[in-house]
Q: What sequence folds into this?
């Protein structure tokens, strides 16, 4: 059995879209957490810079791919094209202990 994995995403909005990005992520928390294969999906806000972090845990890559393919995710990703100051930084990791 493949172990679950963690994903950390750093999302850096343009200053004028800080609230838009915050609200868009807050609006999908419950729905994402209810998805099959989602073990954790937490939103954090940077204290030293205007950015957001997603701390996620997924059962496997297929569960994450299904999340990205969800109908409610595509509109947010489309808005990110104009809302973000730079591309989302994504780091996938495996827990060691």
A:
């Amino acid at each position: 059995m493949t172990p679950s994995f963690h994903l950390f995403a750093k999302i850096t909005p343009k200053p004028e879209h800080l609230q838009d990005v915050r609200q868009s992520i807050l609006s999908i928390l419950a729905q994402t957490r209810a998805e099959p294969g989602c073990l954790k999906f937490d939103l954090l806000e940077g204290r030293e810079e205007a950015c957001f972090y997603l701390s996620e845990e997924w059962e496997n890559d297929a569960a994450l791919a299904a999340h990205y393919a969800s109908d409610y995710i595509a509109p947010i990703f489309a808005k990110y094209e104009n809302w973000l100051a730079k591309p989302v930084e994504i780091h996938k990791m495996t827990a060691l202990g």
The first helix runs from residue 18 to 26. The mean pLDDT is 95. The chain has one domain: 5-93.
